[in-house]
Amino acid sequence: MLLARTSSSAYYGEEFPRGIDTLISHRRAAIPLLLLLLAPGPAAGEDHRESFRTLPAQPEVLYLRERFSACFSCHPPAMAEDEDFNVETGFRDTGLGKNLHWMHLFRQPQGTNCSACHRVDRESGRLFFSEGAGVTRSVRGGSCAPSCHRRKEYQNAGRPSR
């Protein structure tokens, strides 16, 4: 969509306009995108107390969507069910090309329950990592060192963790 041509450059074989008039003409599309990019992730301020009350009690459990249905009122099922790296979660690995939530939930013979690594603050309902999970986060990913496996690092390709 070219509304005004002040100066342009080739961008993947197409004209890509630049200039203040272009900025003004595209501001309606840019503002919602900017707000979306700056918004905190879904878990940032949500109250997870009720969702965690409905999770199975066992730390290892066969994944069935209905057992985790309370989670999907805020999180998309793809966060848990899609193997692909491109799922919007801060827990993915470029080296493996995998969504690491999926790897834990669909691990055989039993998956790992959310409560194995995550805890909920009793007062605020905010989610945090249990000390036993041994999670450290970085700009490019992080690492975990829980009691169930050796310390492992993961890379998010520079995508911010949520």
In terms of structural class, how would the helical and strand content be classed? alpha+beta
**Secondary-structure element pattern, one letter each:** EEHHEHEEHEEEEEE
Q: How many strand elements?
A: 11
> Beta-strand percentage?
15-25%
Give the helix level as a range of percent. Answer: 10-25%
Low-confidence stretches: 1-44
Biggest sheet details? 3 strands, antiparallel
Global geometry: globular
Radius of gyration: 20 Å
What is the strand arrangement across the widest sheet?
9-10-11
End-to-end separation in angstroms reads: 33 Å
Q: Mean pLDDT, nearest integer?
A: 74
Per DSSP, the total helix count is 4
Task: Note down, in words, how this protein is organized.
A hairpin with a 7-residue loop joins β10 and β11 (152-155). 22% of the residues lie in helices and 22% in strands. The protein folds into 2 domains: 7-38, no CATH class; 49-155, no CATH class. The two termini are 33 Å apart. A 3-stranded antiparallel beta sheet has the order 9-10-11, with no helix packed on it. The chain has 4 helices and 11 strands. The chain is α+β, with helices and mostly antiparallel strands and 162 residues long. It has helices spanning 20-38, 49-54, 78-81, 100-105; strands at 7-11, 14-18, 60-61, 92-93, 98-99, 111-112, 118-120, 127-129, 136-138, 141-144, 152-155. It is globular and about 35 Å long.
